[in-house]
Amino acid sequence: MKKHLLLLVAAVVSTAFAYADNRKLSVTGTVEGVQSGKVYLQKFDNKMYKLIDSAQIKNGRFSFDKAVELPEIYAFTLDTTLSAYMVFLDENPVTVKFDTAQYYRNTIVTGSKLQDLFTEYKKQKRVRVDEFIKANPASLVSAYVLYRDFSYRLSPEEIQSNIQLLDVSLRNTPYVKVLEELVKVLETVSIGKKAPDFTVNDVEGKSVKFSDYLGKGYVLVDFWAAWCGPCRRENPNVVKVYAKYHDKGFDIFGVSLDRSKEAWVKAIEKDNLTWTHVSDLLYWNSEPAKLYGVRAIPANFLLDKDGIIVAKNLRGEDLDKILGEYFD
Questions:
Q1: How does 158-173 read in b/e, with b if 16+ C-beta sit within 10 Å?
Q2: Which CATH architecture has domain 199-327?
Q3: 88-123 pLDDT, tens per residue?
Q4: How many CB atoms sit inside 10 A of residue 242's CB?
């Protein structure tokens, strides 16, 4: 891949420091080896990028002049690459130098204390989130890390416990608000609770009510997507288990977090997934995913004939083993 160097100089003008104030962000930059095109400023929201602004590259240079929420993490992208460059911006002038060929390894950011902390966090191979928060209780990075990297690993009790470690100044951040709502949702889909009902269209565009598939035997609600590598690698195991137990009363209800119907349908056919599939094609804004507190895929919920959740996130032999206990 051809190397392009992206140099950003971000000057943030503000009079006081408070979370998520709208402040003037002035960004000038150069892109080595690129004379024209666009640079996009995007905000990371629910694992998706929301376009904030774009700047035209002229003779290798560009600039942004816009009021944005600060401090916050933003992504800079070029129209010549799919790579996104995540940078924490605060009230300080920031200089960012990107190498689009090896941007994770060669990105250099100076001027942002938040980015310095985030860079140190990423260098650590194993991190105990509670220890990281205790060391940096008032940093937005701590709230972001808990939200992004640990919300799908921890129990509701563990999430709430870590929230309590954060400084009160962070309690009003969107990351903490999302986590607090997530705790409430996860408590409704814990083992022993009745699974929430929902209605979504199938591959033919017909409205399907999930509860109509209950009452006959065990049902696995399987959250996945065509673009999800781990999901696709797990699918052969799911197909094998389905073939083994379907005649005994086991069924699967596939819920996709895809955006492209074409990719979704093609993956179903290629992976030989012969059970019922639904999707609202809203990616991480999927209503069933929100209802079940799904923050990472693959994810699944095993229900009995009464719709009670009896197990969660079963993989490979674990799924086969527990179904064997129920059916054999």
A1: ebbebbebbeeebeeb
A2: 3-Layer(aba) Sandwich (3.40)
A3: 887 777 777 766 555 556 677 778 899 999 999 998
A4: 20
